[in-house]
Design goal:
Elements lengths: L4 H7 E8 L5 H11 L24 H6 L7 E6 L2 E6 L8 H8 L4 E7 L6 H12 L4 E6 L8 H12 L2 E4 L1 E4 L7 E4 L4 E4 L13 E3 L4 H7 L1 H17 L5 H5 L3 E6 L8 H11 L6 E2 L4 E2 L7 E9 L8 E9 L1 E3 L2 E5 L4 E5 L3 E4 L2 E4 L2 E3 L3 E5 L9 E3 L10 E3 L3 E7 L5 H13 L3 E6 L6 E4 L3 H14 L3 E5 L4 E7 L2 H10 L4 E4 L4 E5 L2 H10 L3 E4 L1 E3 L1
Parallel strand pairs: 1-3, 1-4, 4-5, 5-11, 6-11
Antiparallel strand pairs: 2-3, 7-8, 8-9, 9-10, 12-13, 14-15, 14-23, 15-22, 16-21, 17-18, 17-23, 19-20, 24-33, 25-27, 25-28, 26-27, 26-30, 29-31, 29-32, 30-31
Helix pairs in contact: 7-8, 11-12
The structure holds guanosine-5',3'-tetraphosphate.
Guanosine-5',3'-tetraphosphate binds next to helix 2.
Length: about 525
């Protein structure tokens, strides 16, 4: 019998992984898919050195560089839950994309390399999670290596990230003598076997901390050390508290090795048990509850040409309330247009599938023919605008010069479409025919040039341009804006979506212009 929509919604767990590059995000993703029965043998998602590559790694360039440029969505059932994992690009240059993806989740998993502790990117991503008090689970990875003292790592997480740690499991040994973990909540030890990383292991569990079987299994020294250690840990750390976790104040901590596929399932058990089902979401007009019968959603990412054979663009929409059903009529609130949607996609482990229905918490992919923008809200008719999806002003700028001047139309189209994905911005100065590309990181420029060539048949190069920063303009009246447009004409441009922007040659120039024109608001982010 089909479940009621509300029950389906309550089953959803939509989360993303935050971590510093190399902490093990890809490896964990792979193991999660193994538990979700989406792949038979772990190791098929990615192996940088082995030549295998992730089904989500669709671009030659990212294979070459070994970074994951794309964000993909993976849905899998686990126990009674339906888990949605939103992959986030790990490279710093793609942080904008990651930030927006984090606006579409209800919880996050923080992965820490136990040898390295809290690293810089994790700090930044935690700041983003803080903006919405997103509940965080923590997985401390690579216990099969010689790593730092676990207590020291927990202290560092508490100090640097300002979040309380509640260990749910505790490791026994490390490196070559990693024996397993003790589960503090279940009072049971789970033993580790090496060389089983590609499969779901048959694990042996020993109930009770004082069970002599434990001494036999891990050795009397390790068993005693564990007992002593736990006394210390229990005194010095926090007990798990569901409400504090949901408030984003406390994180349950799990230890293990993603490579050895050990401990990841403990974390997954915690996720489906404790992480929140789809949360209410703020729109300008009102707060929208996930259980509302009518469907609403917003677009947090647009990705072009995911499959080179299809050459299409997909807008990723997070469903905020209600249910998507094939053939549903939705209103795109920004344009007021109504569209019938009968070919939304889900991404089951990278496979594209037409879905018949999807529920609040799920992500669906809409085919986009250039009419959908990041931040667009869709409803069944109500005028709503979900808030909190940022566009950041780029910090690096280049003039784009065509090798073949006759291809200017393709160039404009390519840059505008790529800008819709949100990682770059394109600007068309009012005073000349230049094309200026803005990005948050330098790697973006290479990605754009490679994709222009591969996907649009346009070859280009970059030249320096005298722009330091960009600001979007807003004013109380159209008249003020028009008057400013006349005065500052030489420094103004339109971005890919047609918004007026000020391209400042220097920070001082921006400051002076801001002082001279108090009637104009110069915005560093354009919230959509
Ligand atoms: P990322 O997506 O966060 O960047 O990390 P990824 O999973 O790619 O892992 C980075 C490296 O760390 C990989 O090694 C991976 O095999 C290794 N790794 C991940 N988890 C564990 C673990 O639990 N224990 C150990 N010992 N290593 C782990 P690599 O040599 O860079 O690449 P590969 O050839 O193994 O893919």
């Amino acid at each position: 019998m089909a479940m009621k929509p509300i029950d389906e919604i309550h089953k959803r767990r939509t989360f993303a992984i935050i971590s510093h590059p190399d902490a093990g995000k890809t490896t964990i993703t792979e193991k999660l898919l193994l538990y979700g029965n989406q792949i038979q043998l772990a190791g098929t998602v990615k192996g940088k050195k082995s030549g295998r590559h992730a089904t989500s790694d669709w671009m030659e360039m990212e294979k070459e560089r070994g970074i994951s440029v794309t964000t993909s969505v993976m849905q899998f059932p686990y126990q009674d839950a339906m888990v949605n994992l939103l992959d986030t690009p790990g490279h710093a240059d793609f942080s904008e994309d990651t930030y927006r993806t984090l606006t579409a989740v209800d919880s996050a998993l923080m992965v820490i390399d136990a040898a390295k502790g809290v690293e810089e990117r994790t700090v930044k991503l935690m700041e983003v999670c803080r903006l919405r008090d997103t509940p965080i689970l923590t997985f401390i990875n690579k216990l099969d290596r010689d790593v730092r003292d676990p207590i020291e790592v927990l202290d560092e997480i508490e100090d640097v990230l300002n979040i309380e740690c509640a260990p749910v499991t505790w490791p026994i040994g490390m490196g070559k003598s990693f024996k397993g973990v003790y589960n503090l909540l279940r009072d049971a030890t789970v033993l580790y076997k090496t060389g089983q990383g590609h499969t779901i292991q048959d694990v042996r569990e020993i109930e009770g901390l004082n069970n002599p079987e434990l001494d036999q299994a891990v050795g009397a020294d390790y068993a005693q050390e564990l007992r002593d250690m736990l006394e210390l840990v229990r005194g010095a750390s926090h007990d798990f508290d569901l409400q504090r976790f949901l408030d984003g104040r406390l994180t349950p901590v799990f230890f293990g090795t993603a490579l050895g596929n050990f401990g990841v399932d403990h974390m997954l058990d915690g996720l489906v048990k404790w992480a929140p089902a789809p949360q209410p979401r703020e729109a300008v007009e009102r707060k929208v509850e996930a259980e509302e019968p009518k469907m609403t959603g917003f677009v947090f990412k647009i990705q072009a040409n995911m499959d080179p054979r299809h050459r299409d663009r997909i807008a990723f929409m997070r469903i905020c309330s209600g249910k998507y059903q094939k053939g549903i009529k939705l209103k795109q609130c920004r344009t007021g247009k109504e569209v019938r949607i009968s070919d939304a996609l889900t991404f089951l482990a990278g496979e594209r599938d037409n879905v018949e229905e999807a529920f609040a918490g799920d992500i669906i992919g809409l085919h986009n023919h250039g009419t959908i923008q990041i931040g667009d809200t869709f409803t069944e008719g109500e005028d709503l605008r979900f808030t909190g999806i940022p566009h950041f002003a780029p910090e690096l700028f280049r003039r784009v010069v065509l090798n073949d001047p006759l291809k200017s139309k393709q160039l404009h189209k390519g840059l505008t479409q790529l800008a819709e994905e949100g990682a770059t911005q394109v600007f068309f100065p009012l005073r000349n025919n230049d094309v200026v590309l803005g990005a948050v990181g330098t790697l973006q420029f290479d990605v754009v040039a490679a994709r222009l060539k591969a996907e649009y048949g346009v070859e280009c190069r970059y030249e320096p341009v005298n722009v330091t920063t960009a600001r979007w303009m807003e004013a109380d009246s159209e008249r003020e804006l028009a008057s400013f447009e006349r005065k500052a004409y030489d420094n103004l441009a339109r971005d890919g979506a047609g918004h007026l922007t000020y391209l400042a040659p220097t920070r001082v120039n921006l400051q002076l212009t801001e002082e001279r024109h108090p009637e104009i608001r110069f915005l560093e982010t354009r919230e959509i």
